[in-house]
Each structure stands twice: as structure tokens, then as C-alpha cells.
Design a protein that fits this description.
Elements: E1 2-6, H1 12-15, E2 16-20, E3 30-39, H2 42-49, E4 60-61, E5 66-74, E6 86-90, E7 107-111, E8 115-117, H3 124-127, H4 133-144, E9 152-155, H5 161-173, E10 176-181, H6 186-193, E11 197-200, H7 206-214, E12 219-224, H8 228-236, E13 238-246, H9 267-272, E14 276-279, H10 282-288, H11 291-306, E15 315-318, H12 323-330, E16 338-342
Length: 372
């Protein structure tokens, strides 16, 4: 089988190699998945750079988050799945926990409790993005902050995939959103998506605008994906006793100095107004949630997507051979469609053990975006 392998830590374009590897064998309680599509997340690239919350043992197959495919074989004693079943693999490495195989390969071995059956009516583009961004949005809104109907929720990076999903989920739950963007041209788009209020930091003062919207008391709940000075302004906008959950640091996207990865908080505000700023990392959630809880929440996400409450933006397919283009697109400003590695039906599989026959998959509308 083919696999996209990082030979060492470094810039993805420099360290990734397309290799032939034996098809792996599933162990007890595991399944062998024939991968159909897998996304290229910015966090995947940070893992390869050695700038994420964990680092694999190199050489390592890239892709550390999620994919969709079909069960090709079952390991001894594996129950609840059948050969040929279409599944999403929540391949997010749990912290603490053992490492998992990367998803940028034709075949993947995964524990059965990390697999979620998905219906064929959900296209591969949506299915392969089910277990990270929609799950993050759901956990942030309903479990981390327990935002109630009628409450205000302040969020940064509203134009990001998670930000858009938060808006959709908030509308469904009757939650009002204040959405922070950094470009004026994004304001109309966020309003059209259903954002109640939009603040553009290009020409507006975040703290002053929040006060104008909700009054001098401030908001009680916020999620932040930017950190840095913007994250500090979000904390400043909180009501006494309010809480911000930080799940990203886009302001330090290319920063390599650990000392620069900060949120400059006011000590007086934290102490005397008892404001709280804490983090959320999906990998750690997977490490602490029971298999039953993870399955329950993933099933809830699947239902929201299948019922079209949450709409995942379509991805742009790439074959593994064009990984350099996919990596470049993943971090291009305003890149739009998420790059996806997809696997054709007629590729050579004569490496290692004999590969199981592969069903034909349909990427739906996204296949039209693949260049010849």
C-alpha cells in the first residue's frame, strides 16, 4: 500500500515522502480500514514540525486526526462491526494514551471503539471531517461551557470551520452569538450564516463593541481560537465570574518561540473579577472520556450532520502524489476548501500482504474539483 511518511520532524514539504508499506494486520478488538478520504488539518502539519502537543516517533505516517473508509478485515474477537461497513475513524491520538497510526495511507488499523458507522448518503468529504471540527464545536458549546438558550456566546475566528459550526449549532440551540473576524469582507458572510452580531477587529475595538452589544456587565461565556492580544481582549470583555475556553492560537500560527505563545491577561481582572481562562484540547478529551462517552458524543455529531443541522464545508480532493499542493493549500490565507487526500480505485496494491478488494466510493460533488 502507499503511505505518506514524514522521515523526521521539519517542514512538511521537506520531510514527507511517498512510500510503499505492507498492509497492516488488525489485532484483537481492532479493524483494518480501507481509507477513502482523509483531511489535511493545520494541526497535522504542526505535528510534523514538532510544534504540537505531542510528537510521533519518526519516521511516521502523516495525518493524526480522522478519515472515512470501509472495514476491510476484523481482528480476533472484534465485535459490533462487519466487513464492508462504512465507518469514520476518530484517529485523534488520545493524551494520555498510546499513539495511533497516521491516516495518510491506504489502509489503517484502528480500535473498534474509535470507529463510527456512517450512512452512504453522507458523502466522503463530510464524513472524513466528522470527528474533529464538528465534535470540537459541540463539546465547546454544550459540555465545556454549557451555554443555555438565550445566552450570549462570544467567539473569535468566527470564519474558521469550527467558528462556522458554532454559529450553526448556536442557532439550532437558541444561543445568541457575537462573532469576531479580522477582515471586513467576512462580516456579511458571517451574518448570512446566522451570526447575530459581528465584530471586525480590522476597524473596530473588540472590548468597546462587546459593551455596546451586551451592556457594561460583559458576556459570561466565550471561546477563543486566536490567543495573543485578541485573546486578552476577549478575557477583558468577560463579566465578573465569566469564562473563556481557549482551543487554538491562530495569532501564533507561524511562531516558533515558545515564549511568544502567550495571552497577556490582566492579573487584577483575573483576581478581583474572578474571571477564568482555561484550555480545551480534543486529544486530551479523547484521553479522559470513556469509550462509551466518546461513542455517544460522536453519534450525536453524526446525527446533527446527517440531519443537516451542521453543514461541513466541502473539501478539495488530492491524490497522495500531489501532497505538496495539498499542504500548501492547507495553510494558504483564505484557502477555502479543506484539502483532502483521496484514494482511487485502480491504484497499485501489490505491496506487502495481499490487499482486500476495495469497494468503489463516491466523493459526491467534491470529485469535480479534482484537477486531472
Amino acid at each position: 500500500m502507499r503511505a505518506l511518511v514524514a522521515v523526521e520532524a521539519g517542514e512538511p514539504i521537506d520531510v514527507l515522502r511517498l512510500e510503499s508499506r505492507p498492509v497492516p494486520t488488525p489485532g484483537a478488538g481492532q479493524a483494518l480500514i480501507r481509507v477513502a478520504a482523509t483531511p489535511v488539518h493545520a494541526s497535522d502539519l504542526h505535528v510534523l514540525r514538532g510544534r504540537y502537543g505531542f510528537s510521533p516517533a519518526f519516521p511516521a505516517v502523516g495525518g493524526n486526526m480522522e478519515c472515512v473508509g470501509r472495514v476491510a478485515a476484523l481482528g480476533p474477537g472484534t465485535e459490533g462491526l462487519r466487513a464492508g461497513e462504512r465507518v469514520v475513524a476518530a484517529a485523534v491520538p488520545a493524551v494520555p494514551g498510546p499513539p495511533v497510526d497516521g491516516t495518510w495511507q491506504e489502509y489503517l488499523v484502528a480500535d473498534a471503539h474509535r470507529l463510527l458507522p456512517v450512512p452512504d448518503r453522507l458523502d466522503d468529504s463530510s464524513a472524513c471531517q466528522l470527528a474533529v471540527n464538528p465534535l470540537t464545536a459541540l463539546l465547546l458549546v454544550t459540555r465545556e461551557l454549557d451555554v443555555r438558550p438565550g445566552e450570549w456566546l462570544l467567539q473569535t475566528a468566527a470564519g474558521s470551520t469550527v467558528g462556522r459550526l458554532v454559529i450553526q449549532l448556536a442557532r439550532h440551540l437558541g444561543i445568541r452569538t457575537i462573532n469576531v473576524v479580522r477582515r471586513r469582507e467576512a462580516v456579511a458572510e458571517i451574518r448570512a450564516l446566522g451570526g447575530d452580531e459581528v465584530i471586525c477587529t480590522e476597524d473596530e475595538d473588540l472590548v468597546r463593541r462587546v459593551t455596546e452589544i451586551v451592556g457594561p456587565a460583559g458576556v459570561r461565556k466565550a471561546v477563543d481560537c486566536v490567543a495573543g492580544p485578541v485573546g486578552a481582549q476577549v478575557a477583558q470583555s468577560l463579566a465578573p465570574g465569566g469564562e473563556t475556553v481557549v482551543y487554538g492560537a491562530l495569532s501564533t500560527h507561524r511562531q516558533t518561540d515558545p515564549a511568544a505563545l502567550t495571552i497577556p491577561l490582566s492579573a487584577r481582572s483575573v483576581i478581583y473579577e474572578t474571571k477564568a481562562v482555561r484550555g480545551f484540547w480534543l486529544n486530551r478529551w479523547f484521553g479522559t472520556a470513556s469509550p462509551e462517552e466518546a461513542q455517544q458524543v460522536l453519534s450525536q455529531v453524526r446525527g446533527l450532520v446527517v440531519d443537516e443541522v451542521l453543514s461541513i464545508p466541502g473539501g478539495r480532493p488530492f491524490p497522495l502524489e500531489r501532497f505538496s499542493e495539498a499542504v500548501e493549500l492547507a495553510e494558504a490565507p483564505g484557502h477555502g476548501a479543506k484539502p483532502l487526500f483521496v484514494f482511487a480505485d485502480d491504484q497499485d496494491e501489490g505491496h506487502g500482504q495481499e490487499a482486500p478488494a476495495r469497494p468503489r466510493y463516491d466523493l459526491g460533488k467534491t470529485t469535480a474539483q479534482m484537477d486531472s
